Amino acid sequence: MRTLVAFNTIVSKEIRRFMRIWPQTLLPPAITTSLYFLIFGRLIGDRIGTINGASYMEYIVPGVILMSVISHSYSNVVSSFYSTKFQRHIEELLVSPVPNMVVLFGYVCGGIARGILVGGVVCGISLLFTGITFTYPWIAVAVFFLTATLFALAGFINAVFADSFDAISIIPNFVLTPLSYLGGVFYSVSMLPDIWQQISRLNPILYMINAFRFGLIGVSDVNVEIALIVTLGFIVMLTLFSLFLLHKGIGIKN
Amino acid sequence: MNALSIKKLCKTYKNGFEALKGIDLEVADGDFFALLGPNGAGKSTAIGIISSLVTKSSGSVHIFDHDLDKETAKAKSCIGLVPQEINFNQFETVRNIVINQAGYYGIPGKQARSRADECLRQMDLWDKRNTVSRRLSGGMKRRVMIARALVHAPRLLILDEPTAGVDIEIRRSMWALMEEVNQQGTTIILTTHYLEEAESLCRNIAIIDQGKIIKNTDMRQLLSQIHLEHFVLNLATPLVTAPKINDYQFNLKEPNVLEVAVPKEKGLNQLFAELTGQGVKVLSLKNKTNRLEQLFLDLVQ
Questions:
Q1: Residue-range definition of the domain harbouring residue B242
Q2: Pairing of strands B79-82, B156-160
Q3: B33-45 pLDDT, tens per residue?
Q4: Residue B89: its chain A contacts at CB < 8 A?
Q5: CATH number of the domain within which B148 lies
Q6: What's the gap in Å between the CA of A83 and the closest CA on chain B?
Q7: What total of structural domains would you count in chain B?
Q8: Helices first, then strands: H and E counts in chain B
Q9: Do B103 and A8 touch (CB under 8 A)?
Q10: Are B32 and B152 members of one domain?
Q11: Which residues of B touch A89 (CB under 8 A)?
Q12: Same structural domain, B53 and B143
């Protein structure tokens, strides 16, 4: 019961935080994705035609939604937890009897909540440009949640190791964004030369985007089961690593 | 039962600095205990370990008989910490800061809000409850930290220099509050650089220096070790040389300002009689230093 109260406190604090700063957290993805849909989907997409039987607009919608979920679930946790360290109110949690697992899942759920909200906003905007169908709704929902969880965990680990505000923007700018763009958001990897197809298959984000696309429009470049296993595997690894960091107090205790 | 029991506590930082060299310390339930020491002596490290902010190298810590390593949640539930530096969310409102802290201790929403409101009223912060914390004055921020530390009704309250940087009026009101909290049964451990604060509030005292406890006794006994008291006298007429009177040590700082060390057994009446006999007229006098301050300096130098 006490643990549940502590968990609720962390999650509601996190949700209040990103709702309070909605012009920074909800407005930018709405504007950016509108531009993606307008430029890539409407203006350029009409000239591209179809990919794997889907119109270009339909093809890019799942990737754009999931790209927003990835970047916002990650950035929510990395910025919030680093700020908690920077302002030293992490000490409020350290002195209290909150178990490490609750601290971790509290922040991760905050990240998932923002991912869901931003994903919802992007879905809403995409409806202005094209209809969304759920060919395999459970797969779409599962990939959506698993992806948000995975990147919220990654954001947490980044925040634990970060010792400056620069350190929390390096991974999103130089790793996540390139991997997302190269993960088949705007194209099918089958359009690439063989060697680049093989290299692309090393990118875990490719699996998530394609699995989500499969859930929505029934089209994928990868085996969906493998995609789910890869994502779950990463979640388990990052969860264990995060708990190890908290247990050792690395980056948060003196 | 002891509120706090520390045994052979050691801390060596990664850079090799040995902050604590095997200290033993016991604080009785209900005590108002002073932990004093010069900067870098190891006070904050000790408090950091007790409150789980610093990882110890070795030794044991028990809070109300709960081993901090084995019964971590129970031990932590007993502690409230007011740290030296402001460490709350500067973008959160005062009320939410206190309510959140209650939540971390497992106090459900309605009860947390009620406890938070009670603490904010007690700290005279009710009018500021909806103010974003960064807009508060320094003294108010200190009081927010005390309200936050008290919200879960801790049995052991640790105050790490709680009155540093606050004006004398607020400091006095905080002293009254600390006494009230202690009288209600909460054990208090206080670290401070204001030794008058420790002298007037605390019943027992430990002095830590270079990672070791060099004195651990009750305040009365410690103060009884003072043999000489130092006073500064303002004189009506200037002197050229300091007077010479047996058993008293004089030091003429300025023609009109005379310092004197008075043996405890002699007292001031005899001093004034002797000075009057030598034609020295005293306008006023004040203590050169706080009594504890003198002892403290003697011990750590």
A1: 228-300
A2: parallel
A3: 999 988 888 999 9
A4: 84, 87, 89
A5: 3.40.50.300
A6: 9
A7: 2
A8: 10, 14
A9: yes
A10: yes
A11: 87-89
A12: yes
